[in-house]
Design goal:
The structure holds two protein chains of two kinds.
Chain A lengths: L10 E11 L8 H5 L10 E12 L4 E5 L6 H9 L6 E6 L3 E4 L12 H11 L4 H15 L14 H12 L6 E5 L7 H16 L3 E5 L3 H7 L2 E6 L2 E7 H12 L4
Parallel strand pairs in A: 3-7, 3-8, 5-6, 6-7
Antiparallel strand pairs in A: 1-2, 1-4, 8-9
Chain B lengths: L14 H22 L5 H22 L9 H22 L2 H4 L1 H6 L6 H28 L10 H25 L2 H16 L13 H6 L2 H10 L9 H32 L1
Helix pairs in contact in B: 1-6, 2-3, 2-6, 3-6, 3-7, 3-8, 3-10, 6-7, 7-10, 7-11, 10-11
The chains are: A alpha/beta, B mainly alpha.
Chain lengths: ~250, ~270
């Protein structure tokens, strides 16, 4: 089932780690800031992720499992390229459609139309592609009557719908999903799931962070179990969920 | 099992194309937000320098006896004030370059220097749009346009290099040292009087003139003024301004590269 025959991996994470400061308000010195990535860690720093090695081939769907604060979202952000590792490497071949903080790019004072064009463009769609897919994206978000409404007047459900509709239409080979599907009503959630199924059937690679066992089983074939900043298990999703439940004795 | 791959992707775009597209999108977004939320829109980018020029013109020609600058003083003043508005607007906005769009920075993999570039470009466009104002005053006051206007593209280029350089230094550092935001405001106020805007470089006392040239704005403003006052063009100051601007850009690139990793974690 897992396409081991793919010639080259789409995502290669090798020895990646990222370092954070324990107290955000801690004093920073210029020396500290410019010291670069190679210096030793200071006592007030910790590594939410360290020495992570993952290789992902095209078409795989991967579920990331772990308790809160064990680095799941951070791993996703490293793959999305919105954070840079302090050691090791993260290589991603091909575009990424990140469903992370999806409503972040929208501007309150602009209309739905302007926001859609802007966000799609920032995520790499060309003008012609935006024009071609515009109606489809609006239909999917069920916002046909609100095209010229300022974004700030939308309900929070509508905002998420608009965002999901744009990002899931990016046609990028890699899709990253970070718990966004917890919001929105049931009907729209089903639509999102159907859309993800469709993308998976089209050969997309999926990176999925969730606490919902049912969702993980539905979409993912392979699981990554993160605990205390390390990758403890990389196996088929059922095994990973079993190990996780054994360790923490509850459903993820 | 048959593996179907993603629908054939568009031809991959070069990083330069991506950069251009993002820069343009963000710049037009900034301008659109500005103009969609204010009734006067474009007028604001002209009104600010106009009111300032009016005040200085009144103070220095009606109250005091003006001994600095050139006749017509209002044209002389505007030729320094309009670029200054670009400079000060872009530099003070760049203190909030990452903070204002933190969510977007956190959720997209855009080339990070675009957050500074778009500020410089948006303010630069407003500057270019304000050029008709000085043309209008030049016609009213009878200041003839000279061959010196050929220096205008160089002036704009140098100023853009200078502002990008400063922005690349200021924007990431503000994320860690919030005090810098206020410090920058103070420095800008000082710099307004330290730069030859209400006076000319040649009006500085002997000895100070050379030191004044190390302020890159001095050379750049003489380039702008060359359009109407070619005799004010100070090539030594221009060369120093060019070197200073490029050095600042170099420092900016280094600082930015070194700090961007930490910036992404902090915002």
């Amino acid at each position: 089932m897992i396409e081991t025959s793919s010639p080259s991996p789409v995502i290669t994470v090798s020895g990646a780690g990222i370092r954070f400061r324990r107290n955000r308000r801690g004093r920073r010195s210029f020396k500290d800031l410019f010291a670069g990535a190679k210096r030793r860690s200071l006592p007030n720093e910790f590594w939410p992720l360290r020495r992570i090695d993952v290789t992902v081939h095209a078409g795989e769907s991967i579920g990331v499992v772990g308790r809160n604060g064990q680095g799941k979202s951070t791993l996703l952000k490293l793959v999305a390229g919105v954070m840079l590792p302090d050691e090791g490497r993260v290589e991603v071949h091909g575009g990424v459609a990140p469903l992370i903080e999806i409503t972040g790019g929208f501007v309150d004072d602009l209309t739905v139309r302007e926001n859609l064009t802007l966000t799609a463009g920032l995520h790499g769609m060309t003008r012609a592609e935006i024009d071609a897919r515009f109606d489809e994206m609006i239909d999917f978000a069920e916002l046909a009557d609100f095209i010229d409404t300022p974004y700030k007047h939308l309900s929070s459900g509508m905002k998420v719908r608009l965002a999901f509709s744009v990002i899931s239409r990016l046609e990028e080979p890699i899709l990253l999903v970070d718990e966004v599907l917890a919001v929105g009503d049931k009907g729209f959630r089903e639509k999102c799931y159907a859309r993800i199924d469709e993308l998976l059937a089209g050969g997309r690679t999926l990176f999925f962070v969730s606490h919902n066992e049912r969702d993980l089983k539905r979409f993912c074939t392979r699981g990554l179990y993160l605990d205390k900043g390390a990758l403890v298990l990389d196996a088929p999703i059922d095994e990973v969920l079993a190990a996780y439940n054994r360790d923490y004795g509850s459903t993820p | 099992m048959l593996v179907t791959f993603a629908s054939p992707a568009r031809p991959p775009r070069t990083p330069a194309q991506v950069y251009r597209q993002t820069l343009w999108l963000l710049t037009t977004r900034d301008l659109r937000v500005r103009y969609s939320t204010s009734a006067l829109g474009y007028l604001w980018s002209v009104l600010d320098p106009l009111v300032m020029a009016g005040i200085y013109w009144f103070v220095f020609t009606q109250i005091f006896d003006r001994s600095v600058g050139q006749e017509p003083y209002i044209v002389f003043l505007l030729a320094g004030l309009l670029p200054w508005v670009w400079f000060t607007g872009a530099v003070s906005d760049s203190t909030r370059a990452f903070i204002k769009d933190a969510k977007l920075v956190r959720s997209t993999r855009l080339p990070r220097s675009v957050w500074i570039g778009r500020i410089v470009l948006a303010k630069g466009i407003e500057f270019v749009l304000s050029i008709p104002v000085i043309a209008l005053f030049a016609i009213i006051m009878g200041a003839p346009l000279t061959w010196g206007v050929l220096w205008l593209p160089l002036a704009i280029l140098l100023q853009a290099v200078l502002i990008v350089g400063i922005g690349l230094i200021v924007a990431p550092l503000v994320v860690f040292f919030r005090d810098l935001e206020r410090a920058v405001k103070l420095i800008l106020r000082f710099l307004f009087y330290a730069s030859p805007i209400i006076y000319g470089l040649a009006d500085l006392p002997d000895g100070l003139e050379l030191w004044g040239s190390f302020n890159p704005l001095a050379g750049i403003i003489t380039l702008y003024r060359a359009s109407f006052f070619p005799e004010l063009l100070d090539l030594r100051a221009v060369v120093i301004a060019a070197i200073m601007s490029l050095v600042l850009l170099g420092i900016g690139v280094l600082v930015f590269r070194r700090t961007v990793r930490a910036v992404l974690k902090e915002i």
